[in-house]
Amino acid sequence: MMFWAPNRTPCQPRTPAPRWRRTRRMRRAASGGRLIGLVRLGLALGVGLGIGIGPGTAVAEPTTVAAQQDDTERAERIVALEARVAALELSFQGLNERFEARLQELERRLAVSREESPEPAERHGEEPAPQLVPLSEHTEEAKAADEAALRDELARALANIDSQPQGGVAPAQPAPADQRRFTDRSRNMRELNPEISVTGDVFGAWADRTGDPEVNQFTLGEFEMALQAPLDPYSQARAFLVEEEGEFGVEELYIDWTTLPGGLGVKFGRFRNDFGKLNRWHHHALPQTGRPLVHQAFLGEDGLAGLGVSLSWLPPTFLGDYNELWIQVTNDDNDVAFSGRGFDAPVITVHETNYWDLSQATYLELGLSAATGVNDAAGDFRSWVMGADINLGWSPPAEALYKGLELRGEVLYERRDGPGGILGSWGGYLYGTRKVGPRWSLGVRGDYTELPSEPGESMWGVSPYAEWWQSEWAKFRFQYSYGSRRFEEDDHDNRFSLQVIWALGPHKHEKY
Question: What is the pTM of this model?
Answer without folding.
Answer: 0.63
